Sequence to fold (387 residues):
Amino acid sequence: MTPIYLDHNATTPVAPAVLDAMLPCLRERFGNPSSLHVAGQQARHTLERAREQVAALVRAAPRDIVFTSGGTEADNLAILGTLAATPARRHIVTTTVEHAAVRSCCQRLEKDGYPVSWTPVDRLGRLDLDAFAAALRPDTALASVMWANNETGVIFPIAELAEICAARRVPLHVDAVQAVGKLPIDLHAVPVTLLSLSAHKFHGPKGAGALVVRKGARLRSQAVGGHQERDIRPGTENIAGIVGLGAAAELAQMLTPTDDARIASLRDRLEQGILSRFPTARVNGDAARRVANTTNVSFEALNSEAILIALSEAGICASAGSACSSGAIEPSHVLVAMGVEERYARGMVRFSVSRFTTADEIDTALDVLPGIVERLMQLAPAGGAGD
Ligand code: PLP
Fold:
């Protein structure tokens, strides 16, 4: 049985055209782009073509694209690299709902004595812009804010944040891992300093991503070695992965508003189907400002993990907050930051669709869910979350 995959914010399948573009790099076109001979020069050409494709997707200059091993490395490089380049400034501004790639990095820095301001969000997951602006200080090295939230899909107003930062001369790093390929991004219009993206979130391969480093950004590499990627990210390039990233970027650029509307209509069909079947279910996050593919639903007094296991047994893949070391699912820090009550936070399930999702898949999920929820409701003590 092929699973019904409704977890595209975790990762996406590689698109056929992306795989086709990658395979020659793993077979006959295996050269090292730093080699001067013809095989090396072929690889160099392929690398530079991918750089152009990625730059075109976010409307940046090809020179600004620094390839990395994915979103986590790009986020870490942005934060740690900026702090290293501007040692006189030690303060960081971020938000309470970031992905672990930013959140854990800032938590570690905080432990090491760097002051960090965590900008709060409201009940709908919207950023408090006044609190953000008030947090910026003369010694702020960097603000790091996500474009779209991986759990709720809520979109932050990056253009406004970029203006606030530019006026205060604070570099802005944007974790756009969940936005690239889902939202139009035009860096000509939005003056962000650094932007992270990751291929596997938009039908490219895992282990390939980029940090967009705009002109004027001050960044110190976090690895020492060769001179690849303008010395910012040394190491022999993952050519097949980068070519896959480029091909995925080109595919994403071809997405039309009609494709977006179809993705949103599948998400809405699922969401409405759930809300109409379960009066105690509710959606977390600002429904008016979120990416088209994501819905985050809480089933009151149920346990996410139990729902996910039952869904998985029925061949349906979805997800919830991050798993803690004991394997049990902790209430998501994003929902906690939004002030969602524990009996709802503990019963959260995130469904995320893609252009490859079908209406039949949504309907099968909607057929299966009532049985699962009813069974778990009978098991759950009234008002308890099963913990
Ligand atoms: N940032 C966000 C918002 C993400 O959703 C993810 C992945 O889930 C990452 C960063 C990390 O990206 P990668 O898996 O490429 O390291």
In short: The CA atoms of residues 135 and 211 lie 25 Å apart. Confidence is low (pLDDT under 50) at residues 382-387.
